[in-house]
């Protein structure tokens, strides 16, 4: 059986990097097996794994529920976070260099987490999200503190058009002095959607400038939609 680390290594990073530079998002198809997705869904009902449950309607975030994992993370999630980070850090560093921002991300995720902890950001931010019929998530950015990593991922755990309908992933791109652009994506079960947490660089006639982006989920029409969100910085609360 091919390990998660090997699957990530051979995911096609030159193409992913180019797509991230151009669009602010990219998809790795079928990184997780059906069994791995199903095991994560089953884990939704194990309270000991989680530090916090958020009911979106109470905070006007949308309609649905999500749970933050506690440390130590399950092995599968820990491996995903550890082995994806170095590739994404290279992309993030290229972005910040293009925008002349004086931030450099270390190559190893453990080193970046040490920076988070030095800023009193010590709580795990990996989360699993559940939407039932009528559920949705309003447009937002997952920053959690002054120290943040500018790229994150969502892994679709349910099977679109079989387990649920609707529930598309939505990105909006705010171009300066112009109307926002909406991007609608429909990842399949086991797909990894990589996208910008905050902004991406865009090349203009006078160099690179920032294009801010937000993400959310459209209304689920039928069924249950589960997804795993992996954010690479830790949180204060």
TrEMBL record:
Pfam families: Oxygenase-NA. Gene3D superfamilies: q2cbj1_9rhob like domain (2.60.120.620). This is Prolyl 4-hydroxylase subunit alpha.
């Amino acid at each position: 059986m091919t390990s998660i680390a090997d699957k990530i290594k051979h995911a096609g990073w030159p193409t992913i990097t180019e797509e991230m530079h151009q669009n602010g998002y990219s998809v790795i198809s079928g990184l997780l097996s059906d069994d791995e997705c199903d095991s994560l869904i089953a884990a939704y009902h194990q309270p000991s794994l989680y530090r916090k449950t958020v009911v979106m309607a109470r905070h006007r975030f949308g309609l649905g529920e999500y749970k933050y994992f506690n440390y130590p993370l399950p092995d599968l999630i820990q491996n995903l976070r550890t082995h994806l980070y170095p590739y994404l850090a290279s992309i993030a560093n290229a972005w910040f260099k293009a925008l002349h921002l004086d931030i450099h991300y270390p190559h190893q995720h453990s080193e970046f987490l040490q920076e988070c902890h030095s800023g009193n950001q010590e709580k795990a931010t990996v989360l699993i999200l559940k939407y039932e019929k009528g559920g949705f998530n309003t447009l937002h950015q997952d920053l959690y503190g002054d120290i943040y990593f500018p790229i994150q991922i969502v892994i679709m755990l349910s099977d679109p058009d079989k387990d649920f309908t609707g529930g598309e992933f939505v990105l909006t791109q705010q171009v300066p002095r112009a109307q926002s652009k909406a991007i609608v994506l429909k990842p399949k079960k086991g797909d990894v959607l990589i996208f910008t947490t905050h902004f991406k660089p865009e090349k203009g006639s006078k160099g690179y400038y920032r294009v801010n982006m937000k993400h959310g989920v459209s209304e689920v029409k039928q069924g249950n939609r589960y997804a795993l969100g992996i954010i690479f910085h830790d949180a204060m609360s």
